[in-house]
């Protein structure tokens, strides 16, 4: 968790605990108390997600290291935050003794299934060339690896530098 916290502070100026609590605040802000529910029911999760994204992305853009791809930087931090929140919340619900044991077991089973899917998609390279068909594939670790920047890459670097100057 220390590395994750350091990364969040670098990119967002706040630690991961702040952002985990912030998600809870945003959900509570848009939640409604419904009869039969012990917690708030969120009718429109896209609202808190949009608000979180609008709050965090400008900080990521501002603090991303020079030359970073801003889309990758934003996706990196948001996906880590959403994944962490999802995992920790599932664990909290599964270990909540106020919930029926069978429900808690189901939560853990779904979390284990999700973990397998997540890990699988992280290491499975079989679709990479289909996801990015115009990409020229070469391992950076092969002897005499090439560097042949294309026009789009040179333009992206130029745009990234000009955008940072405006801030």
Walkthrough of the structure:
This protein is mainly α and 167 residues long. The protein is 68% helix and 2% strand. It has helices at 2-12, 16-30, 45-63, 70-94, 101-123, 128-131, 151-166; strands at 31-32, 41-42. It has a two-stranded antiparallel ribbon. Strand 1 (31-32) and strand 2 (41-42) form a beta hairpin. The model has no long low-confidence stretch (mean pLDDT 88).
Oligomer: single chain
Largest sheet: 2 strands, antiparallel
Low-confidence stretches: none
| Structure class | mainly alpha
Q: Count of DSSP E strands?
A: 2
The number of distinct helices, counting runs of at least 4 residues, comes to 7
Termini, distance in Å?
Answer: 31 Å
Q: Tell me the strand order in the biggest sheet.
A: 1-2
Shape: globular
Q: Rg from C-alpha positions? A: 20 Å
State the share of residues found in helices, binned by percent: 55-70%
Q: Mean of the pLDDT scores?
A: 88
Proportion of residues in extended strands: under 5%
Q: Could you state the order of secondary-structure elements as H and E?
A: HHEEHHHHH
